[in-house]
């Protein structure tokens, strides 16, 4: 089975971008690709343990999505890990700025990571940013 | 005739139906057949692609009253 390495940087906090990042991570991971997700900035608060804050729509499509039975982005990210062995690592800088540590985040996330390691892991990967 | 596990993902949007199918396949035995019900047109293309990629058997799809019935057999 042909497999690609796919790295996804997620810094946005809007529904459309979080949803697309989650769709990409989950579908890529369950299709046998090696998926690494790097979460930072405006994406980070959504992954604090127990957080269920809806992400705001960025444009009309986000409003449309909010009214339909779209798989929640958090569920898709979790499925990427559970069903597709994706790695989702929170950015250590973002955690420092928020004043929290990795233990405050959802359990399916990996250890906090810095850019040096993420960039090294991504050197031979497709890289996507949201 | 092998009894098929029916997975009802009607009303769910992409990639929900694919993820539900995968969850069931993980729990199934080799040789088990599943029939995914989906109202999402994207699934009709996505599911056979995924099945082919990971090495299971795509048994075909039919549409009935706006619902796709997509059949898959677990091979490994």
Descriptive report:
The complex is a heterodimer of chains A (130) and B (76). Chain A is α/β, with parallel strands linked by helices. Chain A has helices spanning 15-30, 60-66, 73-84, 92-98, 115-121; strands spanning 5-10, 34-39, 87-90, 126-129. Chain A has a four-stranded parallel sheet. The two termini of chain A are 28 Å apart. Chain B is an alpha+beta fold and 76 residues long. Helix content of chain B is 34%, strand content 34%. Chain B is built from two helices and four strands, in the order βαβαββ. Chain B has a four-stranded mixed sheet with strand order 1-2-4-3, covered by helices on one side. In chain B, β1 (4-8), α1 and β2 (33-38) form a beta-alpha-beta unit. The two termini of chain B are 20 Å apart.
**In which range does the helix fraction of chain B lie?**
25-40%
Please compute the radius of gyration of chain A using only Cα atoms.
14 Å
The whole-number mean of residue pLDDT values of chain B reads 93
What is the structural class of chain B?
alpha+beta
What number is the mean pLDDT of chain A?
96
Stretches with pLDDT under 50, minimum 5 residues of chain A: none
In this structure, how is the largest beta sheet of chain B organized? 4 strands, mixed
Cα end-to-end separation of chain A: 28 Å
Largest sheet of chain A: 4 strands, parallel
């Amino acid at each position: 089975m042909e497999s690609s390495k796919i790295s996804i940087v997620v810094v946005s906090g809007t529904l459309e971008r979080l949803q697309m990042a989650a769709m990409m991570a989950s579908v890529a991971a369950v299709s046998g690709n090696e998926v690494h997700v790097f979460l930072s900035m405006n994406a980070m608060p959504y992954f604090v343990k127990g957080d269920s804050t809806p992400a705001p729509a960025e444009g009309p499509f986000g409003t449309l999505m909010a009214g339909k039975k779209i798989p929640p982005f958090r569920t898709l990210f979790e499925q990427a890990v559970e069903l597709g062995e994706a790695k989702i690592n929170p950015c250590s800088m973002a955690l420092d700025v928020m004043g929290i540590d990795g233990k405050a985040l959802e359990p399916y996330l990996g250890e906090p990571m810095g850019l040096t390691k993420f960039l090294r892991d991504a050197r031979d990967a497709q890289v996507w940013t949201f | 005739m092998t009894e098929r596990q029916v997975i009802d993902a009607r009303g769910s949007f992409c990639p929900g139906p694919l993820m539900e199918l995968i969850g069931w396949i993980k729990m199934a035995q080799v040789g088990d057949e599943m029939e995914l019900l989906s109202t999402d047109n994207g699934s009709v293309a996505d599911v056979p692609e995924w099945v082919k990629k990971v090495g299971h058997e795509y048994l075909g799809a039919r549409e009935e009253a706006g619902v796709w019935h997509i059949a898959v057999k677990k091979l490994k």
